[in-house]
Amino acid sequence: MAEVSGLADDRALLGRTSTAERVSDILRSRIAEGFFPPGTRLSEDSIGGALGVSRNTLREAFRLLTHERLLVHQLNRGVFVRILTVEDVEDIYRTRRLVECAVVRGLGEPPYPLDAVTGVVAQGVRAAAEKDWTGVSTANIHFHRELVALAGSARTDELMRSVFAELRLAFHVVDDPRGLHEPYLERNQQILETLRAGHAARAERQLAAYLEDSLANLVEVYRRRVGEGG
Q1: What's the whole-number average pLDDT of the chain?
Q2: Which of 52, 61, 93, 113 gets the highest tally of CB atoms within 10 A of its CB?
Q3: Residues 6-18: pLDDT tens digits?
């Protein structure tokens, strides 16, 4: 299976204490990066052989990722990377608004620790200059991840890690990544500058509008693509 060709390189990440959690971390990253696109059937033999893990360990990893809604088990067919519905996408954004806006609202008194946010904004600009639209998509996700990290909450980071990984499933269906992601580079910069100026309430309003527009754009494209696929 072509999708597992580079997976053996991740085998070293397992170390001597191979666990289902570590296998799920590897597969989650590969799914987020598009190595396993939505609708892909995951072969136990191919993936287990590439990572050098037992069938039971791999099945437990699949179970964990199914719980995160990244995989789906189809009776008598196997395990597949999920294809999200429009309702899934809308629910993801509902969660994003609840969490991301609450984080910005609760930042307290400035100045805020914005080095990581600044870094990913620059990452997105570099990717756009190289016409690497997948890289722009990744930078945009990282921008929101670093905003969430400003809360200093490991539980919130863990929750949103799964949400962002699930969101990437929708992004991988889109046939015009530049059109979807490039417009938000400037808005990332605007939110960063607003936070640098210490205006958390204004940044929250900017973020809420950003997420509303992003949802509308993604749903428009996604509904057409999923409809074509059906």
Answers
A1: 91
A2: 61
A3: 777 766 665 544 5
